[in-house]
């Protein structure tokens, strides 16, 4: 091992330390939801006492306690700010996290392994918000999310459309000619299938784009790459082999923001969910109501509930405070079953 290799290893370790510090501080902020006050001397002493059993080799107890005194102080400072939490599916560096930061930079991002974990956490109050991808211009709808939306009681309080710029990432000093496969979320692989085919890279499905980047970084294998965001490259100390590898420049993902309470302001976009009787013409009747009211529909999606039974998601432009929209929704509710207004909210399209 030479000096450059050792320094590369140090850079990778530093990245892991920063990520772990971020995760610890985020967890400390989460504890604020379950405590009546920030100061907890007994718990602080317990953490410091435990360090004596966790030190190892070069990390002695005195050094660890000095370091953790700083960490505990920063944790309490952040708890005092009462920062809201937003959950996303995947690892840090995921496109959902980037979209959440674009929606509100003040939110603290909390990663969840599964979408179900995100929905549950927002429902029970562990997180203030959740952000979910709902559809992509290339990959289409995100099926598991739609299925969870059918049964949730959460409200949509915002939406944001984000351009998705995929990058091919690999460990530093990789010869791109050695690459044989690329790991990423199936949606990302679908959005880059022509690039993968041209470059003879085998698509390897992974649960998350940023998770794939983390895996490639930690394994350090030079024959594999990841498809992920530029942020993931930065977080996991990977080299960007090629930028903007998506098959179409118009590659865009629409994200929804979920919360327990409905949006309190005046929204400009509405989402509803309903089901209809299983007979010809029932959906057409609903769509006709919107057409006659001259309401612009922006999304219609069906999701199977049971054999022969479908739930329909429908988005349209307008505000629930508009009398025309209010009357239209009343008429739709009378013509459907299990009708629910999921939210009236503002939608952002970043420049």
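-> sequence recovered:
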């Amino acid at each position: 091992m030479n000096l450059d290799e050792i320094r590369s290893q140090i850079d990778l370790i530093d990245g892991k330390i920063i990520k772990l510090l971020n995760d610890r501080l985020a967890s400390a902020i989460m504890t604020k939801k379950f405590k009546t006050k920030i100061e907890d001397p007994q718990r602080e002493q317990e953490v410091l006492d435990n360090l004596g059993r966790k030190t190892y080799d070069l990390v002695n107890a005195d050094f660890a306690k000095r370091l953790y005194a700083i960490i505990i102080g920063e944790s309490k400072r952040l708890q005092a700010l009462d920062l809201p939490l937003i959950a996303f599916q995947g690892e840090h560096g995921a496109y959902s996290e980037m979209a959440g930061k674009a929606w509100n930079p003040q939110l603290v991002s909390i990663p969840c392994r599964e979408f179900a974990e995100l929905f549950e956490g927002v429902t029970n109050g562990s997180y203030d918000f959740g952000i979910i991808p709902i559809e992509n211009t290339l990959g289409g709808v995100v099926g598991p999310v739609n299925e969870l939306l059918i049964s949730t009681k959460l409200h949509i309080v915002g939406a944001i459309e984000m351009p998705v710029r995929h990058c091919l990432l690999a460990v530093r000093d990789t010869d791109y000619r050695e690459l044989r496969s690329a790991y990423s979320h199936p949606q990302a692989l679908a959005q880059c299938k022509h690039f993968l085919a041209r470059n003879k890279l085998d698509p390897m499905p992974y649960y998350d784009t940023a998770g794939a980047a983390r895996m490639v970084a930690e394994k350090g294998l030079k024959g594999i790459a990841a498809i992920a965001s530029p942020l993931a490259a930065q977080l996991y100390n990977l080299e960007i082999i090629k930028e903007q590898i998506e098959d179409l420049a118009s590659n865009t993902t629409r994200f929804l923001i979920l919360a327990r309470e409905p949006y309190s302001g005046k929204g400009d976009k509405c989402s509803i969910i309903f089901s209809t009787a299983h007979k010809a013409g029932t959906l057409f009747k609903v769509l006709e109501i919107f057409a006659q009211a001259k309401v612009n529909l922006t999304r219609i999606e069906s999701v199977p509930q049971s054999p022969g039974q479908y739930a329909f998601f429908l988005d349209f432009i307008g505000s629930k405070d508009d009398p025309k929209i209010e009357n239209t929704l009343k008429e739709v509710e009378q013509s459907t079953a299990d009708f629910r207004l999921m939210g009236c909210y503002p939608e952002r399209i970043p420049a």
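The CA atoms of residues 70 and 76 lie 10 Å apart.
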